Every structure is written in C-alpha cells, then in structure tokens.
Amino acid sequence: FAAPEQPSAAEASAKHLVDSNTEVPTSFYDLCPEDREQLQRLNKIEMAALLESTTDFQPLQPRKRRKKRKSDTSVFGVALDVLVERDKRVFPAKMESSLVPLIFTRMLTFLEAQGVREEGIFRKAGSAARIKALRQKCEECRGDVHFDALEAHPHDVAAMLKQFLREAPEPLLTDNYIEAYSQTEGLADPLYGIRLLTQLLPPIHGACLKRLLEFLFKVASLCEVNKMSVPNLAVVFAPTLFYIKGAKGQQMLKEVEIQISTASTLQIMLKHHTELWDVPQDLIAQMRFVNESRLSGRKASKPKDLKKLLSARKSGSLKPVASHEVMIQWVHDDKPPGVKAFVSVVLTTGEVHSRMPITEQTTVKDILVATESPPLCNLYECGGNIVRRRLNPQMRVLPILKINTGLALMIMSSS
User: Fold this and answer.
1) In terms of DSSP bridges, do strands 339-346 and 352-359 run parallel, antiparallel, or are they unpaired?
2) CA–CA separation, 38 and 300 (whole Å)
3) Spatial distance between the Cα atoms of 285 and 13, rounded to a whole number of angstroms
4) 366 - beta bridge partners?
C-alpha cells in the first residue's frame, strides 16, 4: 500500500479539506458541541466580513444582557430558557423537545390540528376578551394547557402566539443578531448570510425558530385553502419575528423600507427552512484547517488568531499538517478491482471491523449494513481534523477519508 500523492502547498492549504460530498450537506447538529463552538467563531468572522460589504453596515457585537424574569409561575414575558428549565423540572414527560417550552409547543400543536386551514390565519384578529381569558388559563396552568379541551378559537391562539413572541424579554432572533438578519437582504447571497446567523443562535432560540418555521411553512403549503401564501405570511408575521422592544422597535414598525426588508428575509427563511442548519462546505473546511493548526501548536483560540490563520490558508503560505493514517490503507494497484482503500471501523461493542473495502460509490449506509449495526446507530467521523461528526447515511465514504486521513470511523448510538 502506498500513500496518495501530495498536492502543492498552495493547493493543499486551499483545497485539501473541501469535501466533495456536496450533494449531502452536514447539519449543524450533526457536529459535536466542541465543533459547533468552533464553527460559530468562524461564522462570526465570516458574517462580519459580509456585513462590511453592505452600505448600511452595522458591526456584529454582543449586546448588554437583559435581566431575565425568573418567575416560577408566569408564562408570558418570561425568557425562553427560563421556561425550558422550569418545564424540565415540572413537566419533563410532557415536553416535545428538551429545547422548546411546553406552552410554545402546545400553541403550535393546536394550530397544526385546528388552524392551518383557517382563512386568514395570523392576518385576522381574534377576540380580545377570549384571548385575555386564554392567557389567564395559560398562566394558571404554567403552560400545561390543552386548547382543544378549552374549545379555543384558532385565530385567538394565533394572536396569542404572536403576543408570546413579542412579550419575551429577548427576541427569538436574539438581541445580538436580529438587526443583522434584516441586513442580509443587501448581501449578494442573502440565504448564505441567514444560514450563518441562524447557526449562531443559542440552542433554545434555534430550536424554537426551527419549530416555528416548520409550522409556518405547513400553513403556507395550504394557501389555496387559507389564503396565506409564503409572501402573505411573511408580511403579517415579520413584524412579530423582527419585533424589538422600545422606541427603536416602534420606529421600525413605521418604516416601510424596514417592513419590506424583514418580510423579504422571512420569505427566504420560509422557502429554505430545511436548509438553514446546513453548514456551508467552505466553513467546514475552515474548521478542519483550524483544528489541524491547533494540533500543530498554532494559536487559534482568539478571533485575531483565527483571522491570521485563515488569511495564511487563503494565501497558501501554510503547509497542511501531516497526519498518521492508522485506520486507512490506500490501494493504488486496483486490486481488488474498484477498491480504493481499506478502512477499519470501530463497532458499538468496541471491537474493530478491519479491512472494510471502500470504492468510489461506498456510502455510510453501506458500512452500517455491512457491519449489521443495530437500529438508531450512526457512523461517526472522529478525530483527525474534526472532533466528532455524525455522518449522513447517503454520504460517500471515500471523500471523507481523503480530507481526514487521521480519522477513526466509529459506530455509536445516536440516542
């Protein structure tokens, strides 16, 4: 077995970490927490550079943290993370997700069953008296409300959902990034900017946004019945999603240009809601490069260090770090025919399945089938220039081996 030919330093530093699995994206949540944290640092640098190119540039910078209302009984006007922590303590078995408040789930679940076919949902107003009574019931039950049992009206719950989001101490898109979202319209690729910002959101805000966008897209898919197409929904819901408290927020609601830009941004978010957590390939390549650089002793913990490393990578002045190919054996004589490499795979039992043949077309699913892996198990890329990544079953394995020759492939439970 011979090692693969090495590219030039410039080619290697710019291209050797780019995954050719472009048809199968990596989800942000397929990365382990350490890799997600590293990716977010890179996202901030990338997003700041993009925003600098816009005429209405406003730098990304941390805002002063708002005081959280730590009530053990209230629902409205309480921070999302406070609600989640309380629900975990009081209603753990009733939560749809450990990152989404129970009251938020209950409103969306009711509207999915009773409201998606209602004409003008989110556009037509509900009854102020009925909404007040519903809110009181929600407060009394600390969010553990079954709206169908209360014979609630869909328009009332829809109005209450918007009130819930507006009255939260911090916007769903967060104080740090809400204005940057509206600036993405001025970018050459607004969707790219929206993806970067969405992957910067705190976990609870990100999970709630994902759940909300999935629901709103479901509403739009029935627009022939409810008359609420994606453009219509974006117009009526953008003032809620992009709502900022105080005088600045009131001014934003009056400015037609801001209303148009936020509605346009929400349209993109709805149309591409399944793609917002797909990590751009170039950023995964940057993350791999930074991880390799850290292993070789280069500084990469501070933003200024990251910027220097990325500039050096772009210029090709840094050579790729050599890795030890412990789990991979490369084949260059085409024997057996079609096999490009043999790889060892660590099974759930801890045993090693040696000499798994890899061809150009071998997928992650093929390995899981060949090793007779139990249900709910996934193949993970571990070590080398990444900490841990869950691999999509449709991904081809050979490109992964080429960009991370120091990896270990491990089959682990996803639970």
Assistant:
1) antiparallel
2) 10
3) 10
4) none
In DSSP terms, 378 is beta-bridged to 412
CA distances from 41 to 51, 167, 203, 308, 409 (A): 16, 30, 15, 14, 26
How far apart, in whole angstroms, are the C-alpha atoms of residue 407 and residue 386? 8
The answer to whether residues 241 and 266 touch, using CB atoms and an 8 Å cutoff, is yes
Asked whether 341 and 398 are in contact (CB, 8 A), the reply is yes
Max Cα-Cα span within the chain: 79
Distance of CA 405 to CAs 3, 98, 322, 328, 397, Å?
10, 36, 9, 7, 12
- Does the reported pTM lie above 0.90? no
Can you tell me which residue has the tokens 């805002």?
63
pLDDT recorded at residue 291:
86
Regions in the chain scoring below 70 on pLDDT: 1-23, 54-73, 247-256, 296-325, 415
Query: What's the rounded Cα separation, in Å, for the pair 143 and 104?
Result: 8
Give residue 246's pLDDT: 72
For 238-271, give the DSSP string.
Answer: HHHHT---SHHHHHHHH-HHHHHHHHHHHHHHHH
Residue position matching structure tokens 């008359």: 227
What was the pLDDT predicted at 303? 61
Neighbours of 232 (CB within 10 A): 18
pLDDT of the residue at 164: 97
Q: Which region holds residue 321: left if phi is over 0, alpha if psi is between -120 and 50, else beta?
A: beta
Joined together, the tokens standing for residue 225 give 């019945």
* Residue 260 pLDDT: 87
- How far is it, in rounded angstroms, from Cα 155 to Cα 102? 20
CA distance 158 to 164: 10
> What letter represents residue 62's amino acid?
P
| Backbone torsion region of residue 118, taken as left when φ is above 0, otherwise alpha when ψ lies between -120 and 50, otherwise beta | beta
